[in-house]
Amino acid sequence: MKNTTIYAHTNLGNEKEWDQEIDALATNNQIAGTHYKKAKIQPIDYIYANNLSYNLGSCLKYITRSKGEKQDRVTDLLKAKHFIDLELQMVYGTDAKGNNIGDYSVEVSL
Questions:
Q1: 104 Cβ partners below 8 Å, 6+ apart?
Q2: In DSSP terms, which residues pair with 100 in a beta bridge?
Q3: N or C: at which end does the chain have fewer Cβ atoms within 10 angstroms?
């Protein structure tokens, strides 16, 4: 395979040059549903290109996929808001209103 930038959501435009190995890459496939396929930029591409945290990446995914009936869109937006609240708490030590709550820590017993 030649060294080239591969975007999961684009077709090279020349079917003769389309490589089946590229088509089989995980970034070119979505398991269950089509909620990201209509996006001009796939969330995973944007997340990796911008080094987003798990929480912010998850937020972006829920915003991108927000579709369907009103309740489905509301649910996706509430999930996105939850991940923003997690980022505020875990990374910045604040609650959802920006009040300082101290550093986040996890205690694990093995």
A1: 89, 90, 91, 93
A2: 94
A3: C
Residue 18 clears pLDDT 80, i.e. is over it: no
Note the pLDDT tens digit of each residue in 43-53. 888 999 999 99
pLDDT (mean) for 72-83: 95
- Which residue shows structure tokens 């389309």? 18
**DSSP one-letter string for 42-107:** -HHHHHHHTT--HHHHHHHHHHHH--SSHHHHHHHHHHHHHHHHHHHHHHH-B-TTS-B-------
Q: Enumerate the domain spans of the chain.
A: 15-92
Distance CA 50, CA 32 (A): 26
pLDDT, average across residues 78-87: 97
